[in-house]
Structures are given as structure tokens and as C-alpha cells.
Design a protein that fits this description.
This protein is α/β, with parallel strands linked by helices. It contains ten helices and 14 strands.
């Protein structure tokens, strides 16, 4: 389908689905042709909001729609395995929200299914597609700060979230880790790969999901990452990468970075900022652009968000949950 307009289907109608679709419809090479929800009423309301021609009250109809080139799965992560698997089984390409699945076992099942079907599959880790994060990674890879020694990152929301909220519902994969902690973990592993050791402590809710979690990851190189996520305190969402010859700081909003500062020994600080074309806080479009680039190039996975990296992050999240004692309905511990 090289050079062709890419036709999207959207599976789910919640907040992230709306945010992604709003950016998608502004891209000249994208066309949103269908949306699905568990209820026809919700699908029709979403379709009317965004001018989408087809609305389905079930997932199966969207998965079977041969006019859809790729499906964006935006359900709660507890349903990612079922929703993405349904679409892959029907021959659709898939962009699936993060956390990619509840656990690494489910993630591997999706990756294996995509490879079996020859379909494109990518985790919607939009941070990896952000032009400034790509620039930061390139600087680190080029040795701009020497050998990486430490990574620090945090993501916390002030809440409070009532017990009925999805973030506190074990059946929906609730807790800070899978919803927020996936970003600090993914940031650290973007720069250092999968850790050799994982340590963690958490404060659990009455529903036995994590309200806040602190993590220390370590690597054979001697590098360490200190990471934090929370549903009970709004953090600065900052990140810092320190090397043997300098440091890179993202002052706030590291997962949608529009600015970072490079500090190198013996030199003045150097600031990098997003261009007007990148758009402030408009990071979701970059993952859509990458998906369409891959599809037009005939690629079944993205080099920016490789499936091996997604699996590695899920293994780390599993290890953290093992350390703090969080399991979800249907899982058997240890994961």
C-alpha cells in the first residue's frame, strides 16, 4: 500500500481514543473510516463527534471491516489482549495502547499472533516517537554525556481517585504502575535496555492495586534507574539522564517533552526545544505518522517502538508487580 492514504479504525471511545482521533483527522495521509464500542450508542456518538462514517456496537464488526487498514486499540489495558487479538486474527494491523497488555505472557501472545498473520503491530508508546525524545536518545547513543550512570523519572497524579474509578479497579488492571509507571520504565529502557535486576516497594489500596510505587532498576554496566509513579500525589513529571561526562534534564512532562537541557562538563548548558511543526503536547500524531510510514513501507514493526522492547518493558512491569504483590483477576502469581 505504498504511498496510499491509510484508513483507520478506532476501537473504544474513551478519553485517549478521542485525543488520538482528534490529532489523526488532521493528518493529510490518514482517514478514520470506522469506530467500535461495546454499545452502538457510544460508537454513534463518537462517530458523530469526529465525522466518522461507520459506527459499530461490537468489536467483531470493526475487526472484520476490510476497508480498515489499521485498528487503534484504546480500551483499558485489561482488554488489550482480547481486542488486539481479535483484530490481528481477522487480518487487521494494530496500534495498541500502553500498557501493552496486563502482563508479558499476554504481550508475547499478541506478538506471536502478529508474526503468524504477517500483520503490523506496535505499542502506542508515543513518547518513543516524539522528535525531541528521539533527539535525546541520539545524543546519548552518540556519547554526548559519556557512559550512562543514572536515570531518574517520575509520573504522579494528585487524585484522589474513588474506589469505583478504573485506576483502582483490579479487573481493569488498575494501579499506578501500568497506567503511569510504564512511562518512567519505558524511558529508562529506551536508553539502557532491559535491566538485570529489579527492586520495588509500593503502597497498596484496599482493592490491592498500587497507589504509588518506587522502583530501582540496575544493569550489568553499573547503571541505575530511580523511578516513581503515583495516584496520590502530583509529581513534576521530570526526567534526568546522568552520564560520566554530563547530564540531560527534562524539567517537566518528560513523556511529551517539548524541551530539554544538555549539560556537559566545561561547557555552557545547551537547550533543545520542539519546533513549531512538532506541536506542544501534540505527541500522539507522531506515533500515527510512524504507523503510516511503516505500513506504506511494508514493515510489520516499527524500529522506533520495536516489539522486543515492548516485551522487555512488560517483563520489567511483571517483575515490579511480583516484588510489591499486585496480581489481577485470572493471573497466577508469580507471573
Amino acid at each position: 500500500m505504498a504511498g496510499e492514504r491509510v484508513r483507520w479504525g478506532v476501537l473504544a471511545t474513551g478519553g485517549i481514543a478521542g485525543a488520538f482521533t482528534a490529532e489523526l483527522i488532521d493528518l493529510p495521509d490518514a482517514e478514520v473510516v470506522a469506530v467500535a464500542s461495546r454499545t452502538e450508542e457510544s460508537a454513534k456518538a463518537f462517530a458523530e463527534r469526529f465525522g466518522i462514517p461507520r459506527a459499530y456496537g461490537d468489536w467483531e464488526s470493526l475487526a472484520a471491516d476490510e476497508d480498515v487498514d489499521v485498528v487503534y486499540v484504546a480500551t483499558p489495558h485489561s482488554a488489550h489482549r482480547a481486542a488486539a487479538g481479535l483484530c490481528l486474527d481477522a487480518g487487521r494491523n494494530v496500534l495498541c495502547e500502553k500498557a501493552f497488555t496486563l502482563n508479558a505472557r499476554e504481550a508475547k501472545e499478541l506478538v506471536d499472533l502478529a508474526k503468524e498473520r504477517g500483520s503490523f503491530l506496535m505499542e502506542a508508546m508515543w513518547m518513543y516517537c516524539n522528535p525531541l525524545i528521539r533527539r535525546l536518545k541520539a545524543l546519548v547513543d552518540e556519547g554526548a554525556i559519556g557512559e550512562v550512570r543514572t536515570v531518574q523519572a517520575d509520573f504522579g497524579l494528585s487524585g484522589p481517585f474513588p474506589p469505583t474509578h478504573r485506576l483502582r479497579d483490579p479487573a481493569q488492571g488498575g494501579g499506578a504502575l501500568l497506567d503511569l509507571g510504564v512511562y518512567p520504565v519505558s524511558f529508562a529502557q529506551l536508553l539502557l535496555g532491559e535491566p538485570s535486576e529489579v527492586m520495588a516497594r509500593a503502597v497498596l489500596s484496599d482493592e490491592s492495586v498500587d497507589l504509588q510505587t518506587g522502583m530501582v532498576l540496575s544493569w550489568e554496566s553499573g547503571a541505575l534507574a530511580s523511578l516513581h509513579c503515583s495516584l496520590v500525589g502530583g509529581t513534576g513529571t521530570s526526567a534526568s539522564v546522568t552520564g560520566s561526562e554530563g547530564r540531560i534534564d527534562i524539567p517537566s512532562g518528560f513523556f511529551y517533552a517539548d524541551r530539554f537541557v544538555l549539560h556537559r562538563d566545561g561547557r555552557d548548558p545547551q537547550e533543545f526545544t520542539a519546533s513549531a511543526a512538532d506541536g506542544t503536547h501534540a505527541g500522539l500524531k507522531h506515533e500515527a505518522i510512524e504507523v503510516m510510514r511503516c505500513l506504506n513501507a511494508g514493515e510489520t514493526e516499527s524500529p522506533l517502538v520495536p516489539l522486543d522492547g515492548t516485551l522487555a518493558v512488560m517483563r520489567t512491569l511483571d517483575a515490579v508487580r511480583n516484588r510489591v504483590g499486585v496480581t489481577y483477576p485470572g493471573e497466577v502469581a508469580p507471573l
